Amino acid sequence: ITSVFSASGSGEGGEGKEEGLTAVLYPHRRIKITELVKAGGQAKVEEVKEEEPQTVEPPTPPPSPAPEPAESTAGPVQTSFLHNHAVSIVNVENLVTLPYNKDDQYIRAFMSEIVSVFKDIAQLNPLFRDQITNFSINQVASNVFDEPDKLADFAAAVSTDEVQELQYVLEALAVDDRLRKALLVLKKELINAQLQSKLSRDVDSKIAKRQWEYYLLEQLKGIKKELGMENDGKDKLIEKFRERAAALKMPEGVRKVFDEELAKLQGLEPAASEANVTRNYLDWLTQIPWGRHTPENYSLTHAERVLDEDHYGLSDVKSRILEFLAVGKLRGTVQGKIICLAGPPGVGKTSIGKSIARALGRQFFRFSVGGLTDVAEIKGHRRTYVGALPGKIIQALKRVGTENPVVLIDEVDKIGRGINGDPASALLEMLDPEQNNSFLDHYMDVPVDLSRVLFVCTANNLDTIPAPLLDRMEVLEVSGYVSEEKAVIASRYLGPQAKDASGLKDADIELDPSAVDVLIKYYCRESGVRNLKKHIDKIYRKAALKLVQDLGEETFPEPKEAEVTPSAGAASEVPASEEKPAAPAEETHESIESQEPPPNESAGTIESEHKDSSGKPTHEGERKEVTTQERKPMEIPASVHVRITPENLKDYVGPPVYQKDRMYAQPPPPGVSTGLGYLGNGSGAVMPIEAMSMPGKGGLQLTGKLGEVIRESANIGLSWVKSHAYELGITKSEGEQFLTDRDVHVHMPEGSIGKEGPSAGTAILTAFVSLFTKTKVDPDIAMTGEISLVGQVLPVGGLKEKILAAHRAGIKTIIAPAANRADIEENVPESVKTGIRFVYVENVREVLQEVFKGQAVTERWKDTLSTSS
Ligand code: ADP
């Protein structure tokens, strides 16, 4: 036994139950068992040979390295002690290696081959190498590499082939045969070793590659971390999203989506474009104010105070808001509602929206859908689009940060028609209280509850609002203001606001109420007050300019200037020294002093080195001074007193836009009637209609920038008059031709204003009748109404504005279509109607009866033109 090592590798104590051992056995000599003597019995012959470098189970007695060379079985001394034990004893026969020639070619070749294979294996298998060295050291025998038989034995001894193969080597008594067999097992060992080493190499290289990658990645991480880039940033980002989400009350479904997206983001390379998309999405998802809202303030007194503070009148709107609050107070919650404020421009629709938000203590967001054609503006883009964004309402929620803002949607009547998809229906989906508690934005892709949003829409015209949308809205008409209302608005709201905005807050500058009246009458006739506001703003601006120009720089020195007029307590009290900085530097607002000081002033804001020899500042542009000091408002000397009266109003706002209410100082000739028109800017107007006839060929000419519809009205009117010429007493007999040799010209003055709409029908017809019957029309009568060819009078719009204009013009009688009666009685304020008599008509005959009442022609008409016919 040249070496033994534990095969199981576990414990080494012999105590172990089934412990295996690997022993390397090297043969000394060959024996053959001829007889087995059982313990105490007779001998049996068995062929058992030695040399097995295989595992040998300890319990089985190792074949004893044959004791004595003696032939006898009769207990030689050395083994006799065994007889007392149950040990088998064998008789053996010695085998002798056949003689051979050491220099035999074959033998030598085998030997060198075996040696070379040894080397090969030793290179591949370090364990094998150890065994060889071990063996060579331990070996008592002479150099195995010189003896072919021993070499063969050795080769077999260190090989681990099958037992049978090894046995063959043992049994081979001819040396060349033994060498061949040994070489065979050795070769197998080599192949084994080669295979083993290849496998291990493969595995090694795989592991090495992975390790290399891992190593590189770790380094990359380290580098990025050093640079404060990416990975760390992603972690922070995810942390941020988590924090944000934790502060929100996301619904279950949304939370799930959030978690999924977050997990997705975690797995993505930060540079990947998809990561960007996910990040943006998460950003939006966590910026929608899930569950966050401003506490509701249902105090009626507070709301009333706020609404009155901001707006005069508008009682409908205000009481609607109070209703809303009362319901909210009782129920504890309010469902979102759509309020639609309809009315002409400048009547405060938008600004009341703002004060509703203030009254309710909610956030305010405004957007306009005028001309909007893209559904995506409302519903958002799908997330896959480049630059995709959610729709407006989601943006609104993000901006205001609460779930219950007041959202003002301007110009719903001007919403466009999309090429793909209809924005109006998208808007409907968003507004409809029935379905907007789970509004699905394309980008967000999770239902968002909009039911707590209070929607306020504004529109100029209800006709163009898509019907389904209009259906769901609660329309509050904000009709224009009458003169008295405008006067109050001007004195209580617009005036003080404008004064403040012009820096004249504490100055004694007064806009006389009579001047305001003139403004309203001759400058700003629109039903809204925006134009009036503009004029009042202009007045105060002009006043400010005049004030500064008149008092000059002595009173209002530039901050750098040293002078302080004794009379005026200039706000920035600057000691009279050039070097001193202008104002105390408490404020740090940035402003750029680039304006040139007035030319009459010798020293300005520009520092001394920027002045030329004459002390005048060098021209601007050389160097702009930069400062962080905020300018203080100037105090206006108490000596200033300005009155703006009707007399000096012209100096502020120029000559009146509207010269007078009546065109005709004297009663006009026959052929002139008075119509009522509605102009595009939301104002009504009293419009005279002039008709004249002249020799010609029976043509009709129309001037005054008339639209197609008015031209048609004129044609209808003329046809009606022609067909009723005999009844009207224009012709002598029924069959008489009329107007065959004359042309008719109709003109509506103020030709610069375009006139549309059918409402002038009755007035044109009246003008024709007046012309042909040569009967004057009372200029105190005005009329409006569309006519049909057979003489029906049809209803028209814009009555409040028209009546307002009539009121201003001192009209005493208005002839209006009967179908407009309810409208007038309901919606037009009493104050405007006082002093005006309303005559409601269904047929043009009634118009004519009314207009020409008491005139000679009506005597005849009693027979020919009775209203019943
Ligand atoms: P709209 O949206 O109807 O076109 P705005 O809301 O922009 O008009 O109103 C124009 C201006 O008129 C605003 O500055 C507003 O403050 C003012 N205004 C309108 N109506 C009133 C009112 N009833 N009381 C006070 N100011 C008003």
From TrEMBL:
Pfam families: AAA (PF00004), Lon_C (PF05362), Lon_lid (PF22667), LON_substr_bdg (PF02190). One of its GO terms (cellular component) is mitochondrial matrix. Residues 1-24, 42-76, 556-635 are annotated as: Disordered. Its EC number is 3.4.21.53. Keywords: ATP-binding, Hydrolase, Nucleotide-binding, Protease, Serine protease. The active site is at 759, 802. GO terms for molecular function: ATP binding; ATP hydrolysis activity; ATP-dependent peptidase activity; serine-type endopeptidase activity; single-stranded DNA binding. Residues 1-190 form the Lon N-terminal domain. This is endopeptidase La. It comes from Crucibulum laeve. The lineage of its organism: Eukaryota, Fungi, Dikarya, Basidiomycota, Agaricomycotina.
